Amino acid sequence: MNVENRISELIDLINYHNDKYYNEDTPEISDYEYDNLMKELIKLEEENPKLKRVDSPSSRVGGKPLDKFEQVVHKIPMLSLANAYSAQDLRDFDKRVRDMVEDEVEYVVEFKIDGLSVGLTYNNGLFEKGATRGDGIVGEDISQNLKTVKSIPLRIKDQEEVVVRGEVFISKDDFKKVNEQQEKQGLQLFANPRNLAAGSLRQLDPKLTAKRPLDIFIFNLEYVQNTDFKNHSEALDYLKELGFKVSPNYKVYNNIQDVIDHIKYWTDNRGELGFEIDGMVIKVNNLAQRETMGYTAKSPRWAIAYKFPAEQKKTKILDIIVEVGRTGTITPTAVLEPVRLAGTSVSRATLHNEDYIREKDIKINDTVLVQKAGDIIPQVVEVIKEERTGDEIDFEMPKKCPVCSEPTVRLEGESAVKCINISCPAQIRRGIIHFVSRDAMNIDGLGESIITLLLDKGLIKDIADLYTLNKDEVVKLDRMGEKSANNLLNSIEKSKSNDLWRLINGLGIKFVGTKGAKILANNFKDLDLIMSASNEELVNLEEFGGIMANSVVKFFQEEKNIKLIEKLKSCGVNTKSIQDESSDIAKIFEGMKIVLTGTLPTLKRNDAKEMIESRGGKVTSSVSKSTTFVLAGEEAGSKLTKANDLGVKVIDEDKFIQLTGLKSKEEVKNELK
Ligand SMILES: NC(=O)c1ccc[n+]([C@@H]2O[C@H](COP(=O)([O-])OP(=O)(O)OC[C@H]3O[C@@H](n4cnc5c(N)ncnc54)[C@H](O)[C@@H]3O)[C@@H](O)[C@H]2O)c1
Ligand SMILES: [Zn+2]
């Protein structure tokens, strides 16, 4: 592969993993692996400056801010940190620092809190605004959510503008409690405290955030009007005075060996802390020296993050099982004797593919070292060969698909063994699970078990069949009452009017995650245009690389995919971008004033609001004679009474969903008579 292609491949991969990590909180590779991709990219760009792209992730921080929240431009850019993985990396850092400044150097060493970075702005002594880091320049305004964090002071003594930066986190104990709660309620467990903290902070409803035990440590004074601080440590003391909960136990040293010893201590003893740290941050203390050293596009030159090696434990591989994925790939998974790692019990680890197993020489009954990638995904680091007893059994990839029994294939140049039977039930099942998931069509009430039932009973054969389900069929399913059947059908119906990007993501095109789907939807606005787009058109999209473009073109060339999309269209699934003004979503509520009250059985308030607004209607808060109709749920109070008094039409959710499916304003008016 030539350098240009490799650069473009690396950019695609890094963008993909950024999206998984920052926006979806579900990383697929370890930080170490990620950092290696980034290192390779930076190296190639340095060697070939002409090939460096302006949109390269090497010169950017973090992920794009999500469009769920208002965007804020940071007063002071919120940068990232360069990484160190060894004592040698730290000595190299020390040398770079000493080459840049003449005087003595002091370092402050702080815990690297494993949470979510936020910036807080105060004015006139009051909390004004709080934001996520986003891409470093623009973040998301999450002020409402941050106000629910009890350790963030709403009032401080300084009356001028003050900007601070800190890390929102959840303590180990609180994390355990939340997961115990989740388990009791049969809900999905959170992978680790950072994951939980990130998910909680990005809730659209601050009431949900308020229920989560979020905490914060402030680690930097970003901006203050009048200062004569000489050192960072003085600034931290000032922050304490102002009432901030400052990152505890920072130390000041004047030589790198002391820094290394201190870090060594915490590498071994971090388990004793009540909160998770994923490393230590080393910063030059003197602020004038910091200014001399300056910044790269991504991070300050005067600081570095030392990352702890992932926690590793010994355990035994009891068995190796295989699973058939959405694209037919058969993935081997090690069944482990359970061990506790980074806060949860681990009993499975993916073994990726045949080559991986050969390379690491993994056998059933082997004793192995395991760790969690990105503190989330368990993986086998290595086999401890000295502990082999002779009882080890070689593993062979199955010659037949474990689900449909058709022969498996391994294509040339690929590492995956696949089932290529397009009607293999396992693939269809996984594909449907992905289609209905939160970041795709977001169909509530359609869990894995119901999907399996629907497939087993032959009620659905593909994603499009979901839209032809009827109530009689659904009610007959095990444990499905009248009410849940209604709810389910309503959620399915509602998903028809989803924005285009959800559908694209739901189709499960390889390498096109949520972000890729949004790029396609925003640029083409219409699925038909995406289907007919050329490789060249796609590659030219910002942040869309060769791998993604190829994959999209290939997907839409396949006969079965074209048929599937025809079928979805004929069921009334929206294939156009809604946010676009010229879009075809009929403005059937135009000029209408609609009031929401009470709790709706399936729709969230925001969803209902969005459905009204995207159809040209206005949601108002109080009922009057000019109100067109009131959409009322359970426990609707005074607004309902008032509507009845004034003779304003009141409808329930079922009726509402029926209205949203109508084609014209006239039809809506008729229905409301
Ligand atoms: N596994 C993956 O797929 C994947 C994807 C993207 C990023 N990553 C990981 O994330 C890293 C990049 O993330 P990042 O930009 O958030 O950088 P980072 O996590 O390496 O370090 C910067 C962050 O540390 C936090 N921090 C905590 N305590 C601090 C303190 N006392 N002082 C200063 N900062 C402190 C800050 O919030 C800051 O944003 C990569 O190096 C990689 O390891 C992994
Ligand atoms: Zn199969």
Automatic annotation (TrEMBL):
Location of the BRCT domain: 584-658
Matches recorded under InterPro entries: BRCT_dom (IPR001357), BRCT_dom_sf (IPR036420), DisA/LigA_HHH (IPR041663), DNA_ligase (IPR001679), DNA_ligase_AS (IPR018239), DNA_ligase_CS (IPR033136), DNAligase_adenylation (IPR013839), DNAligase_N (IPR013840)
Binding residues for Zn(2+): C401, C404, C419, C424
CDD domains, sorted: BRCT_DNA_ligase_like, LIGANc
Active site: residue positions: K112
GO terms under cellular component: cytosol
Main enzyme class: ligase
Function: DNA ligase that catalyzes the formation of phosphodiester linkages between 5'-phosphoryl and 3'-hydroxyl groups in double-stranded DNA using NAD as a coenzyme and as the energy source for the reaction. It is essential for DNA replication and repair of damaged DNA.
Protein known as: DNA ligase
Lineage start: Bacteria, Bacillati, Bacillota, Clostridia, Peptostreptococcales
Gene: ligA
